[in-house]
Amino acid sequence: xxxxxxxxxxxxxxxxxxxxxxxxxxxxxxxxxxxxxxxxxxxxxxxxxxxxxxxxxxxxxxxxxxxxxxxxxxxxxxxxxxxxxxxxxxxxxxxxxxxxxxxxxxxxxxxxxxxxxxxxxxxxxxxxxxxxxxxxxxxxxxxxxxxxxxxxxxxxxxxxxxxxxxxxxxxxxxxxxxxxxxxxxxxxxxxxxxxxxxxxxxxxxxxxxxxxxxxxxxxxxxxxxxxxxxxxxxxxxxxxxxxxxxxxxxxxxxxxxxxxxxxxxxxxxxxxxxxxxxxxxxxxxxxxxxxx
Amino acid sequence: xxxxxxxxxxxxxxxxxxxxxxxxxxxxxxxxxxxxxxxxxxxxxxxxxxxxxxxxxxxxxxxxxxxxxxxxxxxxxxxxxxxxxxxxxxxxxxxxxxxxxxxxxxxxxxxxxxxxxxxxxxxxxxxxxxxxxxxxxxxxxxxxxxxxxxxxxxxxxxxxxxxxxxxxxxxxxxxxxxxxxxxxxxxxxxxxxxxxxxxxxxxxxxxxxxxxxxxxxxxxxxxxxxxxxxxxxxxxxxxxxxxxxxxxxxxxxxxxxxxxxxxxxxxxxxx
Lengths: 292, 271
Ligand SMILES: Nc1ncnc2c1ncn2[C@@H]1O[C@H](COP(=O)(O)OP(=O)(O)O)[C@@H](O)[C@H]1O
Ligand SMILES: [Mg+2]
Known about the structure:
Chain A is mainly α. Chain A contains eleven helices and no strands.
């Protein structure tokens, strides 16, 4: 009895620092690894850009067609400082962003509402299902010129293009999410006293949110595509117009510069969405090895 | 007055048939007669797949019988009533709600004001020993703790009738014994009538006043055994008593046959 009671605490004392030591070295290893990953990423980018610049300067690739990083950077600087032919650069970015955002919000709201409604109401799903399938099968980007005719050169036609691109992925995910709700949860909530409305808003929609969020990531990209393509076909302002104008004057650096700006905008939006998602999904277990 | 003298639950010749994907009718429950008195703890045992869960869904109003009658407190069941609580076999807590919010869900669904619902929920969380965990999400709890949340969420509604479908079958043996004791304690204060479905004969004897043995599917009552072990009981100690073992032998003689029939059937299906 007594040797045990003596041995136990001393074992605990010697074990504890060893444990924290191991934890510390493991944390250090994780940090080192993350430094290595980030460093390698930067290195890869520098290498690609450097190679591109070098090949263009050496004349191995034609800078007139393929441009080069220094010219693209110079183009972005000129736009930012002196403005573009259509006005300041910020105005162009804002226009595109505004059209994409508005189209995205409308498309998402419509997609979620219809998706959940069809997922919950069997009759609606049976009636509308085939039509939605047909519409989804259309290559919707060809609607952009039609919208231009309908809604004119202003933002409305771009918003419309963004909406039709965003709607379908969001709709299908919301529909699927509403359909795949755990039947046990629904039964349980009904036993606890939930009415149909409460089941929809407090059980079906919360369980469908992770499905819906998956589609939000993809669909914001689609909204940007819709806005850009719309602007490219015909507009008075926006990044898509910048691409079209640069292309018209054989300014390949301009095309690349607009693309680079777009990429940055898309990345920022994606980051914001991921941040929101993390806050909204605190109830979910952290995925093992998720590192986005 | 008649509602006071009528039994808590009455099934009269109840049958339930499901349409299988191939279009054929599959009878899960046939001609079931069962009466459960007020405040009685009844355990239902039977081989797997015989129709025990289906019987509970009939009583809860989640499903309607194809034939016969189901009465709760003397009234025929029409949809889901507010007298019934149901603890499911699988986890049925809302993963996006905290522990406290999960237990508040029932009263909130039924229109109880928020502050009152919170108060009642806290009371029940204290009773199941989870007060310190009210801000956690279900995924941060152990299986036993999640089951406690489910129990609190059910009891907070003050059900007159408590339906439990193999509620502890997913837990390890020690936790199961612990939860059984806790259930008896929680129940003793409520006066609710309990139907406890299980395929574990020991569990059913330790808990119940009456053990109902079902036949191999389609389910119907084969035999009913009165359990005359004194209360309060502790699950771990009661199962060592000679009388317990006696009762176990007696019931197993009846249940074992049905289990054998089920096993032979599934063997025939495979062959
Ligand atoms: N919704 C359903 N549709 C078709 N068959 C079902 C359904 N629910 C249960 N069954 C069938 O009814 C029988 C009894 O099921 P169940 O009541 O779950 O058994 P137990 O709970 O006793 O294991 C099983 O053969 C099962 O396959
Ligand atoms: Mg079952």
